[in-house]
Specification:
Length: 174
């Protein structure tokens, strides 16, 4: 994971989850396999239960759904927070994934997705998409979520600059 992705997730945790430090919450990381880093340490709190989900077993993976677009292994409304970083560009049918994410989110749950808006092809196993703030807002709307904020590393709003990936961030709430 590149440094700006980690910093963007750190921003999300500080701004939106700081007030939940004393609450018991369940967190799901979609695309959690530790290929070149993980967000897990940002969620190390005795009250927080972090679960990693990915399409294959590996480091930092707790759940591997039989079908990546129909997570029967997870009941409705199970998670208070869902995160995903550097995964959505690798998901062929990401609109199906956002519907599953919305389904497993509790009411008032938070979502943070970080995906590149730029960069070279990096197949794992495929590399299908790049995202812009308007696209992230549309994705949130499609899943019946409320967009709290969205920005890209090339926006003036966000001072974290990654010249290659120019991450796009969606923060939403159910």
């Amino acid at each position: 994971m590149h440094p700006s992705s980690y910093q963007n997730m750190q921003y999300f945790v500080k701004k939106y989850l700081d007030s939940l430090k004393t609450k018991k919450i369940n967190i799901l990381d979609v695309g959690s396999c530790d290929v070149n880093g993980t967000y897990r340490d940002l969620f190390q709190n005795k009250n927080w239960n972090y679960t990693g989900l990915d399409m294959e077993n590996g480091r930092n993976v707790d759940v591997v759904p039989e079908n990546m677009y129909d997570w029967r292994e997870i009941e409705d409304a199970q998670f208070d927070v869902v995160i995903s970083g550097q995964a959505f560009e690798h998901i062929e049918f990401f609109w199906l994934t956002i519907k599953e994410i919305s389904r497993i989110m509790k009411n008032n749950a938070f979502l943070c997705i970080i995906a590149p808006s730029s960069g070279y092809e990096h197949r794992y196993p495929v590399d299908c998409w790049r995202f812009y703030p308007d696209g992230m807002r549309s994705l949130s709307k499609y899943a019946n979520l409320k967009t709290l904020e969205t920005f890209a590393d090339w926006d003036d709003k966000n001072k974290i600059i990654d010249e290659v990936w120019k991450d796009c961030v969606l923060i939403a709430r159910k």
